[in-house]
Amino acid sequence: MAAVRDLKAAEMAAHGGDDAIELGKRHLIQPWPYAGSVGAEARALIGEGDGIYITDSTGKRLIDGPAGMWCVNVGHRREELARVMYDQAMALSYNTPWYTMNAPSAELAMRIAGHAPGDLSHVFYTTGGSSAVETALRFMQFYNNVRGRPEKKLILSRGGAYHGSTYLSASLNGRPRDRDWMDGADELVIKLSSPDPFRRPHGMSLAAFTDFLVDQFRDTIARVGADKIGAFVGEPVQASGGVVVPPDGYLKRIRQICRDNDILYVSDEVVTGFGRLGHVFASGDVFGIDPDMITFAKGVTSGYFPLGGVIISERLLEELRRSNHPDALFGHGLTYTSHPVGCAVALKNLDLLEQGVLAHTQAVAPYFQAQLKTLEELPLVGEVRGVGLMGCVECVADRESKDPLQLDKDVGKRIDAHCHELGLLVRPLINMCVMSPPLIISREQIDDMVAILREGISRTMDDLRKEGVWRG
Ligand SMILES: Cc1ncc(COP(=O)(O)O)c(C=O)c1O
Q: Which cofactor does it need (predicted)?
């Protein structure tokens, strides 16, 4: 122990923070680490951001392909956002949400409710997406307890889903690998199929696939009992699962089944919210559904401040107010609920979205999709898909078998490494590259991005051929 302490003291004296890569390797635990390298890993060190670009520690400028983690929607280095955070911190840096409130959070809730579909009227703020999903689920449990339905707590989720890294939200996750070594509240969750058209059974039409998904949903409720199921949680477009755009009409049909069975529909818009599909929320404006709750985070502040939240239906709140248990306590709150700095920057971010960024996204998205689609010419690419300014290039060993893994365990990482050299940060996901650039990206910048990705994939194909891993 003394030796570790001496080392720490020597480090602090020597570095003063100048050798961040080395310090990170010794003292940081990165998210999603492997046991064999936990606490001993350095990742690309990013020093600056500006618009759609970030600069790494070697001075290389990169297009920020994933916009951070699907979040830097209005781009890096927006002075308006920095200034509003400074001004709010100087006016009021924090207030306790237990006994007091602040104006930015109330104004933001009003504006968010104004953009939300149906009767979603009230916002509970959290610190990010996981805590937003967690809050929605705890609210569902509370709601059913107060209504005298304590058995109605199970949650429907789907393969390919990602809903967070807190215990309950993570229990909903359905991507391969995520849960192999992790525990979860499995007894509370029922997993259904991912609505992934690319992975539908060979020879099945899209219409038949949609029917299959809907029947599975309905049959599961019939088997388990609607009186046992409290909520369905779903991303309108499964983001981290590989930008899975569901077949037309699927979400509307699921929404109706939930309504018919008194199951709360929670639309997880942590990625799709705040402009990614050209609208503040995609549930209503893109998919025509009015959920009981919408969870959001990320783009609400364009990543400038950790903030998330749940928008809750007026109907549910009214039921609670009128219930026989006016003294039932929703024992749930976070120190940073309704943070004034987060809400102030979110208000300014929403101004930017409303005053041009949403319209720009709508204008540029078809071009983004069309250019990305040209990558299907490459034999390693099985499918390019997407909507709005989110896209995915899925690589497969061959298009017939669509096998992603015979190729290599981490083809996405190989592509990312080449693209990094060429000036583009990619979000690699096993055999997929996910692209979700800042929404302010121009057509010329889309051309640059796609050209680099094309070259990165071509170089990867060369590598795989040389290594004899692939014969495409
Ligand atoms: C759809 C979705 N929900 C929830 C989360 C969790 O959000 P956070 O990482 O802010 O806790 C994510 C994160 O990527 C997400 O994509």
A: pyridoxal 5'-phosphate
* 54-101 pLDDT, tens digit each: 999 999 999 999 999 999 999 999 999 999 999 999 999 999 999 999
Alpha-carbon distances of 65 from 233, 390, 426, 427, rounded to whole Å: 27, 10, 5, 7
pLDDT digits (tens, 9 = 90+) for 278-296: 999 999 999 999 999 999 9
Cβ–Cβ under 8 Å, residues 262 and 255 = no
**68 Cβ contact list (under 8 Å, min separation 6):** 303
> Which atom of ligand 1 approaches the CA of 133 most closely?
4
Q: Which two tokens stand for residue 412?
A: 């996405």
With the most atoms of ligand 1 within 8 angstroms of its CB, the residue from 131, 169, 271 to mutate is: 271
Q: Classify burial at 183, counting beta carbons within 10 Å of its beta carbon; exposed 0-12, middle 13-18, buried 19 or more.
A: exposed
Structural contact between residues 360 and 443, judged by C-beta atoms closer than 8 angstroms = no
CB of residue 297 inside a 6 A radius of ligand 1: yes
Mutate to test the pocket of ligand 1, among 70, 298, 307 (most ligand atoms within 8 A of CB): 298
- The model's pTM: 0.96
Q: Six-digit token pair at 425?
A: 């940060």
> Taking CA 184 as the corner, what is the angle to CA 181 and CA 185, rounded to the nearest 5 degrees?
160
Phi first, then psi: what are they for 379, rounded to 5°? Answer: -65, -20
